[in-house]
Design a protein that fits this description.
The chain has 487 residues and is α/β, with parallel strands linked by helices. The protein folds into two domains: 30-363, Alkaline Phosphatase, subunit A (3-Layer(aba) Sandwich), CATH 3.40.720.10; 372-438, 2-Layer Sandwich (Arylsulfatase, C-terminal domain). 27% of the residues lie in helices and 14% in strands. The protein is built from twelve helices and 15 strands. The protein has helices spanning 3-18, 55-62, 77-86, 90-93, 128-134, 187-201, 224-234, 244-266, 300-303, 330-338, 354-359, 421-438, and strands at 30-36, 65-67, 70-71, 138-143, 165-167, 207-212, 273-279, 304-305, 308-310, 319-321, 325-326, 368-372, 382-387, 390-395, 400-405. The strands form three sheets. Strands 5-4-6-1-7-9-2-10 form an eight-stranded mixed β-sheet, sandwiched between helices. A four-stranded antiparallel β-sheet has the order 12-13-14-15, with helices on one face. A three-stranded mixed β-sheet has the order 8-3-11. Helix 6 packs parallel to helix 8 (244-266) and helix 7 (224-234) packs across helix 8. The longest helix has 23 residues, at 244-266. It is globular and about 60 Å long.
Amino acid sequence: MALLPRLALALALALALCFAPASAGAKQPNVVLILMDDMGYRDPGFVGNKYIDTPNIDKIAKGGATFNQCYASAPNCAPTRACLLTGQYTPRHGVYTVVDDRYAPGQAHMKVLSTKGNDELPAGTKTVADVLKSQGYATALIGMWNLGRGRNGSTGSPTGRGFEVYKRPDDVNFAKDAYRDAQGRYLSDALCDEALAWVEQHKSKPFFLYYADHSVHEPFDPKPELVAKYQKRAATGLDKGITPEYAATVEAADANIGRILAKLESLGLTKDTLVIFTSDNGGLPYVVNPLRGSKGLLYEGGIRVPGAVSWPGTIPAGKSFDEPVASMDFMPTILEAAGIPLPAGQPTDGMSLLKQLKTGAPLNRPAIFWHFPCYIGKGEPMSLLRAGDYKLIMKFTGPTFELYDVKKDPSESKDLAKSEPAKLEELKKQLLTWQKETGAFLANQPNPAYDPNAKEPRGGGKGGQGGGQGGGQGGGQGGGKGGKKGK
């Protein structure tokens, strides 16, 4: 055999081995990606919550691995979902917040000129669903999309981004009906019903189920019997400021996660399924204690989230990892587990966690970055670098810099910017270099319309939470009829 053909054959074999399914000899795994809306880092029992019952989320954690420093890739809903599906940092795809007139640049309460960002993922950007679908996976999104309002099959709709099926309950009005569908079902129950039916239909081939339950989002619509349970339990002092309504909503969502796990078990698919559980951003102010900040802010309370992964027989049970990981890491993790290469010609910033999950090998990642050049609620334009135990925050309204050691000071109560100037300069250089390399929009220009006495407009906004008006095949309508907007 000639040398070149032999080399070509060797290269082909090597590539085949690199992208073989993670379990040698096994078929490609099913993937269930569970993304909760607004669930705080300390909500599940496996993180130490003794007030809220989350036995099914805890089952994922106990049967697999947990990440003690799991982060959302953004402090709010839409950009985290974009990072999760693409494996990219926010400057790559340009999705920074939801489509809402309240966050338009140049308003009087904004000190610097921010950016509107993209309403949806850029044309040509492939999602994990795109890649899996191209390799024969059945794909479905059940729940919140929030990455565009395009009609069925367009780039602003899930079905235009790799999901064969998109379903969420229709006729939901978040201001009046809270979380009920047209049949009167609670939102989480209705979403789970759709998910179970879809899994049953696709049990005979590899599938990717993106289950995005958005019930843990204000305004809450809890089941009365669960509210009564937590009102009684609050008398024990275990609530730590968490409201019974919030606790009841989390337990109801957990129960439906349990229904999905039970479905996999009844079909004999548990060992063939990679299950990932996490949240889209930090929690509400009363559930993040002792972390600083909350949803919408780049402090720990706004981006630290629960994270657990299970794959019985492939990922050892009971493992816990301390290295920081982020939403963008799950896309390359899923593709490696399926033995599928990353999309060619498309930057991927996330790291596959599979080797660490299977063997405990360290990630040895130098740094993770965040970029949020927008205003939203209490949030203002910021960039963030996490390197080792240090965290550098850049506030564009100064510009000012804050430096924290989050291992020693997880509450971010002691700014080290003045006491550790060498470390400050080292990390500033890294952050500014990264901003330049990724083409990040810099919110560093003064807003000529700025009025220090102006307030953020309240209410309004375009459409209902979650966006996306095109239902999937037989799916419900995307978006509500108005009302409270998702962030």
